[in-house]
Amino acid sequence: MRKIALFTLVFCISISSSCIGQDKADSLAISEIDTQVWDTFKAAYATSDGKLYNSIHTDDILRVTESGIRIGDEYKSSILKWFGNDDRSKRTIDFSFDQRFNKGDTAYEVGYYKVTMYKDGEVDKFFLGRFHVVLKKIEGKWKIAQDWDASKINGVSVTEEDFEKAKGG
Cα–Cα distance between 136 and 140 in angstroms, integer? Predict the structure, then answer.
C-alpha cells in the first residue's frame, strides 16, 4: 500500500511539473508572439509601413478574406500598394483573443480585430471582424503563415460586444 501511495505522489508531482513547465512555455511563446507579431502589426498599420507589415508574414503567406485568397508575393505586393496609397486615411488596429494555442514552432490564434479610422484627428468610423491565424517560428521569429478573417459569422456582423468579451472586458 505504501508503494502505491509513493508512486501516486511521484506521478502527481511529475504531472504537475510538466504542466507548470508547459504553462511557462506557453506564456513565453505568447509573449514573443505579442512582441514580434501583434505589436509590430499595430505599428505597421498605424504608420502605413507596408515593408514592416510584410515582415511579419511568411514568404508563402496564405491570406483568406470574404473577397478571396491571396498567396505569397501576390498578397505582399497588394499590401505595399494599399499601404502606399496617398488617400489612405489614418487608422489603428487592436486585437482581442478568444483562443491562443502553441506547440513548438507553431501557434494558432483566434480572436477579433477592431480597425479605427480617423478624419481630421477625430474617430470617423470603425470596422470589426473575427480572425484565425496560424503562426510559424522561423529562424527564431514568429510570423503569420495563414490568416483568415471575416466581418460576419453565420451572416451576423461581429460586434463591439464580441470584441470586448474576448478582451475580458
Answer: 10
